[in-house]
Amino acid sequence: MLKIGLTGGIGAGKSTVAGIFKVLGVPVFDADATAKNILNTDLVLREQVIAAFGSETYKNGLLDKKYLATLVFNSPDQLAKLNALVHPATIAAMEKWASGFTDRPYIIKEAALLFEAGTNEGLDYIIGVSAPQELRIARVMQRDQVSREEVISRMQHQLDDTEKMNRCNFVIDNNEATLVIPQVLSLHEQFIS
Ligand code: ATP
Questions:
Q1: What distance in Å separates the CA atoms of residue 98 and residue 104, rounded to the nearest whole number?
Q2: According to CATH, what is the number of the domain 2-187?
Q3: Domain-by-domain residue ranges, the chain?
Q4: Ligand 1 within 6 A of 151 CB?
Q5: To test the ligand 1 pocket, which listed residue (16, 30, 113, 181) has its Cβ within 8 A of the most ligand atoms?
Q6: The model's pTM
């Protein structure tokens, strides 16, 4: 069973592409959703987060995402500290999840921050989803009903898109000029053969 990463900048279309793989019957692991979920459900991790960032990080037993974000947003050190706690737990969750699919030719791990978080290790290939910056900004403004400045600020916390795509083994162009489904089908054919 191959383990394939699927990444790309904010608004590039990772979830959209992941949805096409799912339609083809490919198991897809959502690393970002799992990381958020684990912070609320893994009691050992919760204790570690409280020890590192203070008891205010949880309110009524649930993670106060906004508060935690304010602590790590502009501090690479604090962000690295949080990642060092969350990523091993997310990788363990993915390994456990993947063990249920060993009879499949491949599974996909979708993650916005794959290279940034160092969680590209252990993956056989990585697919990047690429789209021009202006299109990504417009998509996220519309999807999340946020300002242009808000999207740009989120983008600044991610690796430069060109650098990210250079590090991928395959790139899917989601620029709305090139058809996406044939690109996904072509990769699917390669991974199952
Ligand atoms: P994030 O990192 O923010 O989660 P993402 O990379 O997963 O983003 P998507 O959520 O898949 O991106 O796409 C962003 C928005 O753009 C969504 O509203 C999606 O429906 C839309 N979108 C993506 N690809 C296309 C396309 N080819 N044509 C039209 N709309 C698209």
A1: 10
A2: 3.40.50.300
A3: 2-187
A4: no
A5: 16
A6: 0.91
